[in-house]
Amino acid sequence: MLVLSMMLVLVGCNSATQKDEAEQSKKETNEDKFLNKVDEHYAYEFAKSLEQFKTNDKLGYRTAGSEAELQTGEHIQKEMKKLGLQEVTKDEITVDSWTFEKADLTFKNTKDAKEVAVLGGYQINFDTKGSKEFEIVYANRGTAKDLENLDVKGKLVLIDINQREDWWINYPSYQAHLKGAAAVIAVQNGGYAEVDDSALNAQDICGPDDAPAFSMSRKNAKELKKVLKANNNSVKVSLDAKSTVKMDQPTYNYYGKIEGTNKESYILLSAHYDSYFDGFQDDNSAIGLMLGIAKAMKETGYKPEKTIIFNALAAEEWGVSNTRYDWSTGAFNQIFNVHPEWAKQTFANINFELPAFEHMDANEIRSVYEFKDFLTDFATTVPKVNGIYKDGIKVVTPLQTWSDDFSFSIAGIPAIRNDFQDSQFMHTHYHSQYDDQETYNKKVMKYHMNMYGTLAMQYDKQAVTPLHFTTRLDEMQKTIDKKVNGQSDELEKAIAQTKELAVANDKKVDEVNASYKKAYEAGDMKEAQKILTDHKVLNDQLLATFKQAQDDLVRLTWEDEVIFPHEHAQNNITNLSNAITVLKAGKVTKALDDSLYLIDNNWYAYDFEKEVYDYFTNYVTDQPTDRLMWGAGRIVGHEDLYDVIHSLQSKKDGDDVKTEIASLEKALETQKVLLKKTNNEEIQSLEKLQQLLKAK
């Protein structure tokens, strides 16, 4: 009897234990399982593994179409298969390739000892075929005035540059090229590579491959300048360099999937695998993070409703020669040329950049306008981590052109990325040899893996893509300057009419997604599937509306900032009017210093020859779309003030400037006509959006 009682107790205990375990299992969500499997050490180790592939033994570099980039891609493909991703695919794209093997400059310092400066590279063709002797001269900032009385033919030209405050490398390098220089050697004088005087910098050159440029550290330049000063600004140096650009070469994007119940509806995660130097943050860590998310999802057996695509992209840093829009080549090709069908099937893109560093006190998510509300709500569910991001999560808009997410968004895929562009890191470490493992923050990596992995799962719980068009319309309204814009009433009326429909649309989207999420989390997949089926047309229309907004309402300044179309002429009218007013008061200097440089790309008219100015204007306005890629059709217009500016530069306050005022007044009338045209086009675009919103 005692034995029987004990057996009954044991059976009862086992039943209770099993019941408790079942209850516990039931309570554990997919997110919980995912978070328990996140392994930031895996992400870190895989990020490090990418550093083995390089074109330059001393500095790294894994660049578009190079052997190092090709090897890295194969390495990532192998890892995707190892993780168990499905349909691992290698997509060929065409880029202009760049292989930077070396650039070592040797000179005798002030102590008559040999000093070797290892130089950074830009995307140019230059081969000394071994060590070659050159004469080198110093040319201040490399402007037309700096080179005017300097013989640079066949010589190396050392210049100081601040690419953040002044101009990009293409302007002084092309100016020197026109004067017959062998190459420019640029020294960062603030803006980038501020971390240390030994830091080099690399950027996309945005210019032709036959106007060579290299990068030198401030440390080496300081010593070289001393030697130049002691020798009447001319000394002999030897340079051993090889940099090769080839047009129309193959490289590859890679992707793998976790297939969902719906094989034709996607959530797209992306990161690029090319780099300058070792590129530990930019973008090794992003590849590590993305594959780390895939690994955790696979290990938990996560079975999504939508198919999740993990896309490793080539040629983000640069991939097309001699165009202003020479970056994000891999992503642009992927979505516009290789898989354009993804645009109509993808709920969202999450793009990763420099993700293992605490860039700011707030963890910023940069987003298209339409996702701001959804992401703001999501941010409240993400637990804080002690020691990082004391100001929590902040959603910022709009997307900017710095990274691959912009290419995806203009194709019609609502996109976001972890933000970095306003970080001090951009001034100090970015695109330098100091972007290395020392910058790694374990807590930040884990936090981002947790946050963006669960965000992908939240997207998976939406029946329709959670777009709120009211956000874009509100921002558009804010940019109208009634003092300048004569059609502001008509434009505001069109915005208000569109917003009325958008408010109802936002409400419907939220209701549908709340119903779907409730059924999904309750395990009622029959009801969840019915909601999906019933609202497929709504989701298709949402994506079509988003694409229409991207086509018609996303434009760029001449400095690549995202604006609404009317802002272009508004800005020009404001600054032309201000310049005319102060010139009529005899204030020439004020017009030049406060207003004229803010009109289109006329900043460059101040310091470079007309041929340089025209070259970098025309390659935006006149190039075919395949060279302009994501920038094609995004510039609203151009007002050429070169002659006016140069004429004013030759005058002083109080001089006769009637001719210049007349030219500016003519330009002002042109901009007023352009603004009217742009307003009318925007009103028509809003009417199109109204029709699409009504269809829902």
Q: Helical element count? A: 23
Structural class of the helices, strands and pairings?
alpha/beta
Judging from the principal axes of the Cα atoms, what is the shape? globular
Assign the CATH superfamily of the largest domain.
Answer: Zn peptidases
Written account of the structure:
- With 696 residues, this protein is α/β, with parallel strands linked by helices.
- It folds into 3 domains: 30-98 and 247-384 and 398-420 and 437-458, Aminopeptidase, CATH 3.40.630; 99-244, Glucose Oxidase, domain 1 (3-Layer(bba) Sandwich), CATH 3.50.30.30; 468-696, no CATH class.
- It has 23 helices and 17 strands.
- It has helices at 2-27, 30-37, 40-49, 67-83, 144-147, 170-178, 218-230, 280-300, 329-338, 372-379, 404-411, 425-428, 442-460, 469-478, 488-522, 525-534, 536-553, 565-584, 588-594, 610-621, 625-628, 642-649, 658-694, and strands at residues 86-108, 114-118, 120-121, 126-127, 132-138, 156-161, 183-188, 213-216, 235-258, 262-272, 306-313, 346-351, 363-367, 393-396, 415-418, 555-556, 562-563.
- The chain has a 15-stranded mixed beta sheet that branches. The protein has a two-stranded antiparallel sheet with strand order 16-17.
- Helix 6 (170-178) links the parallel strand 6 (156-161) and strand 7.
- Helix 2 crosses helix 8 (280-300) and helix 17 (536-553) runs antiparallel to helix 23.
- The longest helix is centred in the last third of the chain and has 37 residues, at 658-694.
- It is globular, with a radius of gyration of 28 Å.
- The chain starts with a helix and ends with a helix.
